[in-house]
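In this supplementary section we document a worked example of the pipeline. Step one takes a protein sequence of length 153 as its only input; no multiple sequence alignment statistics are reported here. Step two produces a three-dimensional model, which step three serialises into C-alpha cells for compact storage. The input and output of this example are shown verbatim.
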Amino acid sequence: MTHSIAKAILLVEDNPDDVVLTLRAFERNHITNPVVHAADGVEALDYLFGRGRWEGRDPADLPQVVLLDLKLPRVDGLEVLRAVRADARTHFLPVVVLTSSGEERDLVDSYRLGANSYVRKPVDFREFVEAARELGLYWLVLNQAPPKDPVVP
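The serialised model returned by step three reads:
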C-alpha cells in the first residue's frame, strides 16, 4: 500500500495578518497540505526555482497550487506570474491570484499573464473561511493537475 504525501501550497503573501487568516481558514476546513509561505516575490521565485535560501531544494517538486498576492515588496505578483509562465518547468503550475485588489487592470493583467484564477479576498472572516474551503476543494481535490513533464507540440 502506497501513501502519497500531500503536495505543498505556496502562499505568497506579505501581510502577516492575511497569512494567519489563510492558515486558520485552511485549518478550519481541514486542508492539511503543507503550506510554504513566501513574504515577497523574490522568496516565491527562489522557492520555485531552488535558489537563495531554498538552494538545494528540488525545483521539480512543485507545489500543488500557488496562492499569489499581487501587491508584494521587491517583486510584485504580476512579475512573479510572468516569470512562472516564462519558464518551462513552471509554465503549467496552477496559480491563483488571491488579492484584495478590486482594480479591473489587475484582473485583466493577471489573466493576460496566465493566472488560472483570480479571487478577491473577502474581508469578513466567515466569508474568507468559505472562500478558502472552496479554493481547497477545487484546487486540491477536483482539479486535475498537468503531468509532471507535459509533452507540448
